[in-house]
Give the backbone structure.
Amino acid sequence: MDPDFYYTIEQAAVAEFKERGSRFLAYCYPVASIETAKTYIAALKKEHPKAVHYCLAYRMGIDGHTFRVSDDGEPSGSAGRPILGQIDSKQLTNVLVVVVRYFGGTLLGVPGLINAYKTSTALALQLIPIVQKAVEVNYELNFDYHQMNEVMMIVKQYNCQVTEQVAQLFVQLKIGIPKHRLEEALNKFGELREVTLKRVEK
């Protein structure tokens, strides 16, 4: 993976796959926290109370180290792993996929299940544009209010994301600076007098 960029989705999608009477509904969501993922999972269980399985996988974080797979009662390795495999094949992060299964009366066997969970996930992911985002480094800026225009010009020039702003007599701005432009941006901010910068861990 490119250390300066990552790939994700910004909208949700759903796709359906049918196999020998069983219905597989794959729901994809952009997620940035485990709490958000849990909310979506709980909502789907309410929406589909008669479904037999809610199998899922997610991968989160810029480094992609946060992930989970669940077969939710299906044979081990037949659902969660194939779902995660599709997320990983597109090198995505901050993505949750839940596949809701309605049983159709015929057992599909492990190969059939793997194919169904893999295919339904792939169909849903095909519906969503993949977005490339810059890996950001978080900084806090403190400066006098009259310097707002100068600071914001640099923020815009280097595509920094403003994550928090507190403005009174002095302004405190929390921003994410794209990693691949960090040095240039810090130099520019450094040219402004009386602007203090400090790196913050999110």
